Amino acid sequence: MRTIKFRVFDKQYKKMLGVETLYINEEMFKPIDGNEYNVWCYDTEYCSELMQYTGLKDKNGKNIYEGDIVSFDPSVPPLGVMPQEDEVGIIKYILNSFLVVTKNNVNYDIDELGDWVVIGNIHENPGLLDATAKKRQSSLHRRDKRAN
After folding, report:
1. How far is CA 74 from CA 26, 83, 103, 115, in A?
2. Which residue in 30, 80, 101, 105 could disulfide with 112, CB within 3.0 to 4.6 Å?
3. Contact 54/70 with Cβ under 8 angstroms?
4. What is the CATH number of domain 6-147?
5. How many Cβ atoms sit within 10 Å of the Cβ of residue 73?
6. Checking DSSP bridges between strand 97-102 and strand 48-57, what pairing results, if any?
7. Which helix (H) or strand (E) element contains residue 30?
C-alpha cells in the first residue's frame, strides 16, 4: 500500500512546506510550520498549492511529488516506451495515475519506467524545463552537425 502524504507551496511567501494535517471537511491543511491554510482561495496569486506524494522515490532516494521536474536516467531500462536520455518532464496526476508530462506533451507512466531523478519543481524552479529543453536541443543540433 502506498504512503499518502502531501506538501504545499506557499505562493505568498514562496516556500515549500510539508503538510502535517489535512482537514478534508473544512478544506484546510496544516503545514509542519504550524499555520493553517485554506485549500481553496479566490486570489490565485496567493493561493497555496497542495501536491501529493507519488509513493515513489527517485534514483537518489528523494520522494517524488506532483509538480516535481524530473530527468530520465536510462541506467535502468523501462518496461514501456523509452524516453530520450536526459528527457525532462513534470509529474502530474491525470486519470488516477501519476505521469511524467514532457514539454512535447508526451506522457510516460512513472510506474513503468526506469530511473527518474528529481531536479527541481515547477514552483521553485519554473525556468528549469525551458533551460533543460534548450540545452538538450542544442546538444542534438551539435550531434547532427558532427554526423554530417
Report:
1. 44, 8, 19, 7
2. 80
3. no
4. 2.30.30.290
5. 18
6. unpaired
7. strand 28-31
What is the number of other CB atoms lying within 10 angstroms of the CB of residue 63? 15
The enclosing H or E element of 141 equals helix 128-147
Q: Which amino acid is at 103?
A: K
Asked if 6 and 29 count as a contact pair (C-beta separation under 8 A), the reply is yes
65 neighbors 110 (Cβ within 8 angstroms): no
Q: Which letter does DSSP use for residue 103 in this model?
A: T
Q: Amino acid identity of 112?
A: E
Strands of the sheet containing 107-109, edge to edge, are 107-109, 97-102, 88-94, 68-73, 115-121
Cell reading at 112 = 513503468
Q: pLDDT tens across 71-111, in order?
A: 887 665 555 556 666 678 899 999 888 998 888 777 888 87
- Would you say 70 and 87 are in contact if contact means Cβ atoms under 8 Å apart? no
Amino acid in position 107: N
**pLDDT tens, 28-45?**
666 666 666 665 565 666
